[in-house]
Amino acid sequence: MExxxxxxxxTVVLPAANxxxxxxxxxxxxxxxxxxxxxxxAFAGWRYDEGGRPRSEFPLNASETAGARVLVAGENFxxxxxxxxxxxxxxxxxxxxxxxxxxxxxxxxxxxKNGLLPVxxxxxxxxxxxxxxxxxxxxxxxxxxxxxxxSVPFAVDPFARRCLIDGVDELGFLLGQADAIARFEQxxx
Length: 189
Hints:
This protein is an alpha/beta fold. Helices cover 32% and strands 18% of the residues. The chain has a single domain, classed as Aconitase, domain 4 (Alpha-Beta Barrel).
């Protein structure tokens, strides 16, 4: 996983409220335990027509969103069932952060475990971000999002923050403690 310190990126805006995990990654794509390749199925029900052709009006299909790493979503993003495939699909598409005024708790936990930073901002900044794509800077060390010349704070679990900054997941963190664990076990015998 790529370390997350400071990210400056264009945004992709999906203003709909209550975007659930089935809309993020439809159930028909949950047959895999591999994270790779799910990005092409992110928002499949909205991105493609019945024939599988990209809908030009959908934001992820616009040429100006290529390379964008920040998704700005409506309120209550990631609600619905618990599926790690949802953050997997977003990360595989290229997103590193999702910004909203409210992000569902289970989605938030799954996102943090999979390298996707959920950023909850105040309603004033959220309204401005929903107005249209812009460039934002997310600084995980200072826990601030900057846009329109204004910085707003956001909260993140300290352990998850450390893992994101170090570019490791929970297992990677534990494996990084192997020497300390071995010393402890040796002292106990």
